[in-house]
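Researcher: Please generate the 3D structure of the following complex. Treat every line as part of one assembly.
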Amino acid sequence: MVKTDTDKLIASLTDDLQPVSTPLPAWIATVGWLALAWTWVVGVTIALGPMREGWLSQLLSTPQFALEFALGASAIVAASYAALQLSTPSQRTVRRSLAPAFALLTAWVALLVYGLFDPALAPSMAGKRPHCFVETLAFSVVPIAMGLVFVRRRAALDRKAVALLFGLGAAAIPALIMQAACMYDPQHALMVHLGPVAIIGVLSGLLVSRFIPKL
Amino acid sequence: MLMTIDQAYGWNMGEGRAQRARALAVFVWPRAPWQSLSAASRGLAPLSWATTLPLVVDLMASIHPTTSEAFLEPAAPAQNPRAARDQRWTALMVAAQAGDAVAYQTLLGELRDAISSYLGSRFGDVEWIDDCVQESLLAIHKARHTFVAPKPIAAWVFAIVSNKSIDMFRRRGAGVGKNTEASDQLDDREQLMARSSESAIDAGRALGWLEPKYRKALMLTKLQGYTVEEAASMAGVSHTAMRTRVSRALRMVKRGLERDGI
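Model: Done. Output below.
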């Protein structure tokens, strides 16, 4: 019987086959990435400047501010979980994976836009950090790099989507922390804290995706 | 004598995964309502952790020394051929992940036929099917560690195949139109077009979910080998519009394949 190229390929793939171990489940990897990324961002934020005075009591006593925080945190979790889920082949479509993270991010932005008219806290310059825009951009670099480590043993079919989600999640962490570490003003938050989230998301989708192994 | 779970609960326990799953269910949730009812109806006390644990350990140890062997064991007959196929593929993949070359060779052989038939039914008798099958097998090999039983293996496999077929479409468009001045390549292209025009009829059926203008754009550029400029003049639209149509058509095919499933 004549061996076709495909038969030869199969023979070469099965020759000297080694056992393989499966990567961490997506939710465990998500918890790991979140723990490391949050530790890094909180640590470096505190190291470079104090948190805003009274932020914790504001968080506990102002439901709208707490909701802003909860939406931001949920968006981060959704983005990172979707990124890790998409980094292995499955029937789940990219659109379906992106939807929860984008919905939560949109809700977060919408609540801040609402805050322009009815702010959660009285807008104030108290606690302003002079370089919060640059800090938000810079602090997200390490979490993105951590994300690359987490996906290196996976097999992403849509690398751009994975990188976009990691970029959004990574930049949203410092953006959220800045809500407690920098001055409170919805306009400032939208432009200076959440602006970098969009920038990093797009840059990550375009550039960082090249560092994700192609299947 | 250690009483087995079959005896205690009256299950008709064979040597399959369903039975093991039930045994594990008892282990995880020893006082499940149906067990209590079932046991009570036969005058038996519901099992507790203390009585269940040794039973489960005994049962598992007596049947399966390793997980991969457990999956390789003939399972209970599946409800339908597709479910039976998925069960078999899952068992073979789990064994392959453990380093079983024979199981892996069997799996890849079955996947080759399944992928070929999948692509044939969707794109017609196009000449790049063999290439796409090979690329898909290579990708499956590279990603084999990412499959986790008991997730549906067919979804995992055909997500990779869909992705590779779209890649192939894109690359064909990029490759066919280049250096068309060279006469030998022109000859090749003529042959390619002659073959493709027949297969395009089949492909048109497989790409039936596209609007006519998108289907035409895809067929002209990706199946019949015309450049974007030639296709644009044939369709009577601008070069940019044709490029946009091709790009949108590819996205639609991708979404269609994702929706289509297996």
